[in-house]
Here is the input.
Amino acid sequence: MVKAYKFRLYPTTQQKELMLKTFGCVRFVYNQTLAARRDAYDKNKRSLSANDCVKMLPGLKEQYPWLREVDSTALQSSVKNMGKAYENFFHGLKKQQGPKAGFPKFKAKHHSKASYTSKMSIFVGDSAVKLPKLAWVKAKISTPLTAPTNKFVGFQVGDLWGHHGAIASRYSGEHG
Here is the structure.
């Protein structure tokens, strides 16, 4: 079973800046790989898989060196999310029942939810969380974690001071 924990982060100015860069890089990579998938289909009538798009990341990092500044698993998750959006769209076309997912759209800077998913070992202390590339970030943790954690979803709420994080943790035990 996966249990999620949500808490408020209190990043320093540098950590906040890196989180904002990560939000932007995740959106940029999503849009670049979506454009590549569309172009591949328009030119060759061939669709790229999510794994093909993940393999594009080293080339994108070579072309845009600033992509190296952020967590690589966040970029990979962005591409996987775009692949899942494609799957949901085509799955809806096949089934023709229930609400259909629309064709994947480009993410806009001002009209998209600023978020990213990091899939690495996350360490949680009494009053801080250790995140990839960010080191220890102060946090208000009201519930102690009961199991190792491997997934972090960072998102922004409101102005720059409203960073929150959610952690998914696998555990075995009774319902709770």
